[in-house]
Amino acid sequence: MMRKRRSTVISRIFLAVIFIFLYAPIFVLITFSFNSSKSRTQWAGFTLDWYAELFNDASIMNAFSTTLLVSLLAAAIATVFGTVTALGFYCLRKRWRSPLMAVNNIPLTNADIVTGVSLCLLFVFFGSRLKFNLGFGTLLVAHITFNVPYVLLSVMPKLYQLDRSLIDAAQDLGCTPARAFLKVTVPELMPGIINGAIIAFTMSIDDFVISYFTAGSTVSTLSMTIYAMTRRRVTPKINAISSLLFGAVLVLLIIINVREIRQEEAKKRAEAKLRQGAMQK
Hints:
It is a single chain. This protein is mostly helical. It has a domain at 59-252: Orthogonal Bundle (MetI-like fold), CATH 1.10.3720. The protein is built from 11 helices and no strands. The longest helix has 45 residues, at 236-280. It starts with a helix and ends with a helix.
């Protein structure tokens, strides 16, 4: 009994140390984003001036609007492509599905710099022949490319959980295949589709390496702008930007986790109702 308590205490201490190691730098960054001094070591008082300067900086606001637009468009298009691809994979035989899923997983395990350089060379190759340059379009295509696998992996588990008898019942009651798909299949897949869209949006906002190689010289995302600022001189505005990005990602993670908890609770309630109905019969 004593050994079990000691092991529990040690594991909790070890876990606390890991969390401190991971999140202490982030909390320091957030704290110094409200520091009235430019010092990165001494606290001189609370202020919101760096956030005010941040929102008055035209280059940062342009980069933010570009990042937001690219992330929204890439997430929306990748969600459609990823969902359709998942449906196609689901309809394939297992011997064909397994190798294609392995190909789908390559962008997830591949290094970002390899993906970025490869896409850059591809765009330059076709651009020299089709007469277009790196810019917003190539940046958007690159983001769609690495977002599709995340959406596909979010939708596939929901397809495996799908009860095909519901689709057959809808068609027996007079639904056309298209109407059964919209009324039955899509609502059943919606939790996976929404999770995939949120993940794709988060990955697009967070990306730097692939954007750096595919955006060209006319377009700059927020991560690229921050990188350019750090090369010149680190200012507290960078702390403010990083704090806002951390807050946005944290909110998205909370939304995802709350949705998953609610889905599990709704599933348990539905199963409990079915058991009660079966017992009453």
